[in-house]
Amino acid sequence: MKVLSHILVYRRFLLIVFTLLVLLPLPIIVRTKEAECAYTLFVVAIFWLTEALPLSVTALLPGLMFPLFGIMTSKNVASAYFKDFHLLLIGVICLATSIEKWNLHKRIALRMVMMVGVNPAWLTLGFMSSTAFLSMWLSNTSTAAMVMPIVEAVAQQIISAEAEVEATQMTHFSGSTNHGLETDEGVETNERKEKTIPVPGYSNDAGKISRKTELEKNSGTGTKYRTERDHMLCKLMCLCIAYSSTIGGLTTITGTSTNLIFAEHFNMRYPDCHCINFGSWFMLSFPAAIIILLLSWIWLHWLFLGFNFKEMFKCGKTKTAKQKACAEVIKQEYQKLGPMRYQEIVTLVLFIVMALLWFSRDPGFVSGWSALFPEYPGFATDSTVALLIGILFFLIPAKRLTKTTPTGEIVAFDYSPLITWKEFQSFMPWDIAILVGGGFALADGCEESGLSKWIGNKLSPLGSLPVWLIILISSLLVTSLTEVASNPATITLLLPILSPLAEAIQVNPLYILIPSTLCTSFAFLLPVANPPNAIVFSYGHLKVIDMVKAGLGVNIVGVAVVMLGMSTWIRAMFDLSTYPSWAPPISNETMP
Question: Which CDD domains does its entry note (predicted)?
Answer without folding.
Answer: SLC13_permease
